[in-house]
Design a protein that fits this description.
The protein is of the alpha+beta class. Helices cover 51% and strands 8% of the residues. A hairpin with a 5-residue loop joins strand 3 and strand 4.
């Protein structure tokens, strides 16, 4: 973004230099040109900033980028015996694994090359734990939705079945089956509407607990809310309509005698 990258000038006998990311510049050098600034490196030396690079999410995609400092391996070697090498490739990355390994061994025959994998696998590994939690949460949510649909259907069917005698009396007094069904549907869906509003308000209050588990999607995802609300409303409508339709088709005298 600014300055330069490491080159042959940055040898072990040259003055220590460093490259920083934009997050560090925003934190430590706001409204100031960071190039040429020096900072303490943790021992008796200071490093000079020679370049600024864009932010990278090295701690996972769900977290904001952290301030980072890059040092030249020729100038700063903390005793590490291994380090990652990233190769940009076109096409299938796995097809280049042997060629990359051969290139590394041509530089150092004693080097051990291990854990060769596409960047896609690295990304999947970085989100493996939150993905497992979300899959588990999704399974529980699906089971809860099925139980809610079944329970809603059962409760509404039972409530309508309890009105069989009332429906018989209305039919005996001249109400048509469609009038009876419409009456029961209006009353039943009124209860459903009230329950939906109360449930949505309670759900909105609890969505903040899911914010830390989600990445790339808002807890208030409109499409999800609409789908779940539509499923529950359809189940409630079916639970109200089907028993009411059956009850309205029963002979009035039989319905009146029903306990």
């Amino acid at each position: 973004m600014r300055g330069r990258l490491f080159d042959d000038r940055d040898g072990p006998d040259s003055p220590p230099v460093a490259i920083v990311n934009q997050a560090l510049v925003d934190r430590d050098f706001p409204n100031v040109d960071p190039l040429g600034k020096r900072f303490h490196t943790g021992d008796t030396t200071f490093a000079t900033i020679v370049g600024v690079v864009s932010d990278m999410k090295n701690v996972g995609p769900e977290r904001p980028p952290h301030p980072q400092v890059y040092r030249s391996y020729r100038q700063f070697n903390p005793g590490a015996t291994s380090f990652p090498i990233i190769v940009r490739a076109r096409g299938a990355p796995a097809a280049l694994a042997n060629a990359v390994t051969a290139a590394v061994l041509s530089v150092d025959p004693a080097a051990a090359v291990s854990a060769v994998m596409p960047m896609r696998h690295v990304m999947e590994g970085s989100v493996a734990r939150p993905r497992f939690y979300l899959v588990l949460l999704g399974v529980f949510a699906g089971v809860a939705l099925i139980l809610a649909l079944a329970g809603l259907y059962g409760v509404m069917s039972y409530a309508v079945a309890q009105r069989t005698r009332e429906i018989g009396i209305r039919s005996a007094l001249g109400s048509t089956p469609s009038q009876v069904v419409n009456l029961v549907m209006r009353q039943g869906m009124g209860l459903v509407a009230t329950g939906t509003i109360v449930g949505l308000l309670g759900a909105f209050a609890l969505t903040r607990l899911l914010g830390s588990l989600l990445y790339g999607v808002s807890p208030l995802d409109i499409l999800t809310w609409l789908i779940v609300t539509a499923l529950l409303t359809c189940a409630a409508a079916a639970a109200t309509f089907l028993p009411a339709r059956r009850a309205s088709s029963v002979e009035p005298l039989v319905a009146i005698r029903t306990d």
